[in-house]
Amino acid sequence: MCKLRVVARPFIVCEVGSGVTAKFWHDNWIGLGPLIEVIGPLGPRTVGLPIDAVVRDALRGTSWWIASSRSRNPIIVQLKNLLPEAQGLLDCQHDDSFLWKTDLHAPSNRFSAPRTWSALHPQSHTVPWHKAVWFKNHVPKHAFICWVVAWNRLHTRDRLQNWGLSIPAECLLCNAHDDSRAHLFFECQFSGVVWRFFTASTNLNPPAQLMDCLNWLLSPSREKNICLIIRLAFHSCVYAIWRERNQRLHSGVSRSTESILKDIQLIIRARLDPLSRSTAHQPNALSLLGTCEPEITVYKAPEIEVKLDNFNEKTDIYSFGIVFLSLALFWI
């Protein structure tokens, strides 16, 4: 908690009453911040007031102790101009009070967590493409990777080289061009095949550049179902391409575009299936899977036929249980 004092101090304002509690140098009682920060660390020694003095200690009779000084020292002159009228402190009977102030709001004796959060984390400029990443029914891990890609924070090889690392520059997917965000999404021949499979299936023609494509995803089609499907496909492609790139880098295992497309199709179908069931009761509404089926051929796992010959009462039940458990794990 002591480490947070520096963060909390700018929000604390002292409303001086009798002046016996507020610190003259360290509390923000003049509204401009602590005097030790406004005047500087030489202030206490220059004006002759101890650094731990309270506001009441600075009074001499009915005025400030420094009011009679004729010094032209810039610190003393500045302090004279900053100090308020002393008459109000002499007549006040209640103690000093400390209030919480955020931004342009008036000081209050109540702490506001939302206002404090907004003051500590000012709202930045809203990017126009954010709804193409954080839309309803998105896949969280896909959306996160897409957000990182949009801000160009992936550790691609061009960025690693800019940090001074001596590494190869070639793309791990095509080995023909340098590895970069623009190349991976989707100038690379490998990744371009994956992305164009879905756009061609829906008869859409997205822009070639990544950021232009994000803006295009805000309204890729007039049909609501197609918009959701193509956004899910875009997220899945970005996620699958980055995963394939890392898998080749760290484990040396490569997969074909056909294998990646089958995985993406299964992911999209798994995401659309519960959404399609929720709209099944609507009489004239075309379900999401109904929209998806004509354009995207979903990969189906091969059926497995298990023959248990000569299974009778004397068959080892434990062995059968192992077979059944193996089949269950395969389908999961």
Automatic annotation (TrEMBL):
GO MF: RNA-directed DNA polymerase activity
Origin superkingdom: Eukaryota
Any GO BP: response to cold
Keyword annotations of the record: Nucleotidyltransferase, RNA-directed DNA polymerase, Transferase
InterPro entries: Kinase-like_dom_sf (IPR011009), RVT-Znf (IPR026960)
Cellular component aspect of the GO annotation: stromule
Pfam families linked to this entry: zf-RVT
Protein name from the UniProt record: AT4g04650 protein
